[in-house]
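Design review, sub-item: ligand-bound model
Attendees: FS, YL, KQ
YL presented the inputs for the zinc ion complex:
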Amino acid sequence: MANAVKIAPSILSADFARLGEEVRAIDAAGCDYVHVDVMDGHFVPNISLGPVVVEAIRPHTAKPLDTHLMITPVDPYLEAFAKAGSDIITVHAEAGPHLHRSLQVIRSLGKKAGVSLNPSTPAGVVAHVLDQVDMILVMTVNPGFGGQVFIAEQVEKIRAIRKMIADRPIELEVDGGINPKNAGSVVEAGADVLVAGSTVFGGGDYAAAINALKVAVR
Ligand code: DX5
Ligand code: ZN
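KQ shared the predicted structure:
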């Protein structure tokens, strides 16, 4: 299990003026996914990027683009993010009244469907969509910014969701404030994909940062 943990650097912490180069650098450094944070200034208090940017980075890596949509409404934009080259499209459970429908639409576009939970959202929100999702993303910060402090209370939610997943083929991703000090606790609770923005892009050596996370969960 520990060896299967995947690292998904968040390009929110990359140098946006050199985004293609940054994506190639994390690819070469051994990332598993490229995590793309999409923010609308409405669902979250920050604005980041849209489908044109996903399309622009697509040729720079063959690794899966893990697109985290922090936007509402989300349904009108799913097709654009699919066409731009996302492989996994994650919507927030809080973003709309019809989570089940959004997940169905993502799968109908031929993409993996994810659902994300804010820190205040209970685990039970995913109970009746477990057969519609390929990924569940537990936020360990309030979404909107990189570089925030990990909320340790979320570890119990990770554990509860891992139990609910049981033997279904669903990845359990954790996002927010992940570093080599806390990575072990979320993996022990059942996470198998770690998003890391400032931990990977904050220092100069991306390969060393990715490796440090992998070593920390071994
Ligand atoms: C927060 C984003 C995260 C964030 C992670 O809203 O979803 O992906 O960029 O950054 P760090 O790892 O710095 O908390
Ligand atoms: Zn994210």
